[in-house]
Amino acid sequence: MNKEADGLSTVEHIEALADQLSICADELHKRIMQEIQQHCGQPPSATRQAALRALFDNEMILRQRANGLYADAAGLIVGSLGKSQRHVAELTAAAAEKIRKIAVLKDVTGLVAGMLSLAGAAATGQPAPIMLALSKIKEQLAALEAQQPKATA
Fold first, then answer.
1. What is the superkingdom listed in this entry's lineage (predicted)?
2. Do 72 and 123 form a contact (C-beta atoms < 8 A)?
């Protein structure tokens, strides 16, 4: 049996997902701090403050869920996910990169929601919610990619 072919099928795979979720949380924190610093010492608008607070709360939840995955890795092995570990890793790495580069704050919020969904789904150890969460992240990444201006030749 090819362990690489079965995503989240070993303790190491669960820990790798937790690592990726932690990286996403790190990128989100950097992004929040970058948004705060863009205001040159002036407080952001009430709407922007609320968005930043929500993202900060999401960062904390993402970290808590990643820590939970580390703690419970042995009990969360998924037998038949139907996606490779490489697919899971590539999708979460792409999400971390998008969090770092996304220009519009509301787009960060949507992607982070998908990552939180994946973290929660992984904690169930059940393939169906994990597959749904991976699908939502993939759709969000595709939508963000479609919004990018096309390079001219």
1. Bacteria
2. yes
Q: Which helix (H) or strand (E) holds 66?
A: helix 46-72
In angstroms, the CA 120 to CA 23 distance is 16
Residues 6+ apart with CB under 8 A from 102: 31, 108, 111, 144
Q: What's the chain's length in residues?
A: 153
**What is the per-residue pLDDT across 75-113, written as a single tens digit (0 to 9) for each?**
777 766 777 888 888 989 999 999 888 878 888 888 999
Going by C-alpha positions, the residue among 58, 61, 76 that lies closest to residue 125 is 76
Spatial distance between the Cα atoms of 74 and 82, rounded to a whole number of angstroms = 19
- Please state the domain extents for the chain: 11-146
**Kind and range of the H or E run holding 127:** helix 127-147
83: helix, strand or coil? coil
Separation between Cα atoms, residue 84 and residue 94, nearest integer Å? 15
